[in-house]
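Good morning C.,

I know you're traveling, so I'll keep this short. The sequence:
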Amino acid sequence: MVTALSIARTHPGKVRAHNEDALLERPNDGLWAVADGLGGHQEGARASRLVVERLAETPLNGSLEQRLEQVRRVLHDVNRRLTQELTVLADGPERLIGTTVVTLLIGEGAAACIWAGDSRAYLWRGDRLYQLTRDHRLLERLTDIEGLSPRQAGRHPGARALTQALGAQQALALDIVRFELQAGDRLLLSSDGLHDFLEERALGAALSLPSPTLALERLLDGVLQGPARDNLTAIVIHPQEAA
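The tokens, ready to paste straight into the viewer:
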């Protein structure tokens, strides 16, 4: 059996008056999530809250794979609601009500991430930082499909545009990564307002600290010492083998 210590925090940053990020901690059920809303502060906050509220109220039962399937269904249901119901409330046909999401499930000595958008999951293991998720941004599509170098793709004016998000389109393509847990693993879920403004070595240095609380404080302080132009959210998780 695997248990976990975790701590989470979200902050509006220094520029925006409203926070469109939302987070979820269900450590007793081995579920955590970060969502970053899109479409303006009212619509974006509504979308991110919706996905977190639906995940919070969903019973999780069975094996890790069964719980992963339950989460996947919730995310598809939220996407259908955002694309079919809430979008009609927006002003004009081009308005978007959506959200990115990254979730982490742990259990049975293993873990799985399922995501859409550019909120991320990281793993700190053996003094190395691994990015578990791959951003659903045009930048990644230009490098993967068009064969551009990261520098060339980064010059594209729409490089940061999302190619997947809940509410963006009716056909939602979620990505999933599964992995075995090892002693000493530390995990981070974050919105782009955090990881886009910290170098990987800063992320790793924070996750190397001995407690989730110290790691979270280091991460938030690192962003807030700069311009902090976006909302920022982080969840730090330390899986632990139960006695």
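Safe travels,
E.
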